[in-house]
């Protein structure tokens, strides 16, 4: 509901599109629920969960960029302009990539944390487990 409240405030005059988007999202969610409940044994859960987590991580990066931009617009954080990237307004709002050094640094740090976490989970830990199993065998 918080997302819809923020979207409603941001999208004045576009209420029809917000409602259509909510209906489309509900239909998609219903389709996913049906697929999981009826076809659950045939669905590859690991790729689905990894894909869902990736979408959430990308949303976190976009939210962080937009949060920094909002703090800059009320002069709580300094805004140091950069020459690039210069995205169209709708794409900048969608991705949170605004041409300020502070926002890009926050997003880069967040991406670095995510990449390091993924490397730890998918590379380092499996290698450590293999070493332990080889030593004990």
Compressed to H and E, one letter per element, the order equals HHHHH
The biggest beta sheet reads: none
Q: Roughly what fraction of the amino acids lie in strands?
A: under 5%
**Unreliable spans:** none
Q: What percentage of residues falls in helices of 4 or more residues?
A: over 70%
Structural class: mainly alpha
- How far is it from the N-terminal to the C-terminal residue, by CA? 53 Å
Work out the helix count: 5
Question: Tally of extended strands?
Answer: 0
Work out the radius of gyration.
20 Å
Averaged pLDDT, please? 88
Question: How many domains in all?
Answer: 2
What is the overall silhouette? flat
Tell me about this structure.
The protein has helices at residues 2-10, 15-39, 45-73, 89-95, 101-136. The chain has 137 residues and is mainly α. It has two domains: 1-43, no CATH class; 44-137, no CATH class. The model has no long low-confidence stretch (mean pLDDT 88).
How would you describe this structure in keywords?
5 helices
List the helices and strands and how they pair.
Blueprint: H1 2-10, H2 15-39, H3 45-73, H4 89-95, H5 101-136
Helix pairs in contact: 3-5
Outline of this structure?
The protein has 137 residues and is an all-alpha fold.
């Amino acid at each position: 509901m918080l997302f819809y409240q923020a979207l409603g405030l941001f999208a004045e005059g576009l209420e029809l599109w917000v409602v259509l988007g909510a209906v489309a999202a509900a239909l998609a969610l219903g389709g996913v629920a049906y697929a999981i409940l009826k076809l659950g044994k045939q669905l590859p859960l690991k790729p689905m969960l990894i894909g869902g987590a990736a979408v959430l991580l990308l949303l976190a990066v976009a939210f962080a960029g937009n949060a920094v931009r909002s703090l800059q617009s009320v002069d709580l954080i300094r805004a140091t302009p950069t020459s690039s990237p210069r995205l169209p307004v709708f794409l900048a709002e969608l991705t949170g990539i605004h041409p300020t050094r502070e926002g890009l640094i926050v997003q880069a740090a967040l991406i670095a944390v995510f990449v390091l976490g993924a490397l730890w989970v998918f590379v380092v830990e499996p290698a450590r487990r293999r070493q332990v199993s080889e030593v004990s065998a």
